[in-house]
Amino acid sequence: MANAWHKGFCKDQSGAVAASYALALVPLLAIAGLAYDYTRLVGMDTELQNAADQAALAGASQLTRRSGSMEAAIAAIQGGLVSNSTRFSNDGTGSTIDVSTAGIVFYNTKADAEAGTNGFTDTTKFTEAGFVQVTVETRSANFALTPIVGAVSEDLTASAVAGLGSAACRVPPLMICNPDEPLSGDASADFIRPAGIGILAVRGDTGQSFWEPGNFGYLDLGNGANGVRAGMGWTSPEGACLSLAGVDQIEVDIETGLKTDATDSVNTRFDLFDNVACPAGGECPAAFNSRKDLVRDADDIPASGNACKIHNDGWHEVPLADQYLPATATPLPTSITPKSMGHPRDMCHAVSNAGNCTDGPLGDGNWDRDAYFRSHYIRTSGPNAGTTWTANDWQTNTGLGTSPTRYQVYKWEETNAGLTIDGVEILGQYPAAPTGSEYVNHAKPVCSQQEGYSGTFTGPPDRRKLSVAVINCRAEGVNGKSVNVPVHTWIDVFLVQPSKNRERTNRGEVYVEYIGKSSQQGGSGGGLIVRRDVPYLVR
């Protein structure tokens, strides 16, 4: 009997599940605790990383590489531009992540930032600070259930690196090869010319007609020749934006060939609307100060249908005898006053078709200021009515010194437009010669409104201020249709005169005056480069 009971007990399986649970209880509790605490750990890591990311982005938004930018970045990181709460840290140090004591390191290039090398904290190196790394405070997660398997807590921190991603927009498709690059080629060679020099940026089809074989001075910003025309004329060229995100230099493609139709678009900035001057899809208003060497007949007001074009019935030159055609690269004698000369070229460029400037397409900044003021500054009132401003008169009346640049004169005229100074209404309408003239020189737009562009034309962007890419052509191997060519620097230039077939100029030429290095910030009074900066995470 006892033996039978023993055999039955051994075969009985009731209660086996309970035994299995009892045996599995410890590992099940360990796994559940690990899952719970791991979720807390991952959540806290995410909160810390978000805090680091947001702090780095806030700091990067201030990095303009200008004085005070590093201090502004530190203040943005530590001063609470962003608020970060934590729900997973249970170390008793608060419900927010403190970034006021974050570790902050700056880098010059994206490559350094990615590798974490060559970092610095010296705020005097603001010109090198393009990226910032932020490391937030260490926080602890005290485990609730995991201690069963021997772990008690885990410490976590997080780090992020950010910089500014940019797009350069409204870029006129113009380039020049750096004249200061050595013959051996040097990608780091800088453009070091003084402000005020004249530059034959696009040389047309006369003389030395290209910067490099096939390259006449244009960039390809999209859509080929039509894109060039739009870029030269529109106030905001469609598609003419170049991404800067993740690169230290803008890279461009070179547009080959001479685009003479593009100069029709350039001329809209001077109130000239010849042929199909403004490509469809954009706007091409004139500059408020559209002073030029071209005139219209006095009886052609109001204008006829062709009066806004360049030909005998519209804008035209005065007779050769009355034009600015110097025989030597020296100022004209005071006995000679051109009836209309606009803002002229450097004298070494104006003396002949090819010019005789030492540096070819680059002038020396010496232009005939006295002849310009004699030509346009004719007193129409006061005791000296009918006389012109002398050298002493314009130096005294403008306060610009003895050798202002053309751009400085242009801006002075714009600032004082409508005022009567020493018998002259600045940018007013008056004959191109003291007496007996049949021509009228318009310094302010008259055709632009007829073309449908209303307003005073004084707002940004300045239609006669452009930005031009300077490329170290030898070092970069520019030849023909080159692509992804780094731009060494950008310069701002003043558009000096319309492009036209004259006695000594060619319709395909674009002549400018160097103002200075471009800030690439755009805005009112800036060149047509505009940077739209957005902070982005590097790592």
Describe this structure in words.
The radius of gyration is 35 Å and the shape is elongated. It has a domain at 20-165. The relative contact order is 0.14. The strands form 7 sheets. It has a 5-stranded mixed β-sheet with strand order 7-17-19-20-8, with no helix packed on it. A 4-stranded antiparallel β-sheet has the order 1-2-5-22. 22% of the residues lie in helices and 17% in strands. It has helices at 2-11, 16-60, 69-78, 110-115, 224-233, 262-267, 347-350, 369-376, 391-398, 406-415, and strands at residues 103-107, 131-135, 139-142, 153-156, 159-165, 167-169, 175-177, 198-203, 218-220, 242-243, 251-255, 296-297, 420-421, 424-425, 430-431, 439-441, 465-471, 485-486, 489-495, 509-517, 530-531, 534-537. By secondary structure, it is an alpha+beta fold. Mean pLDDT is 79; it is low at 88-92, 432-436 and 521-526.
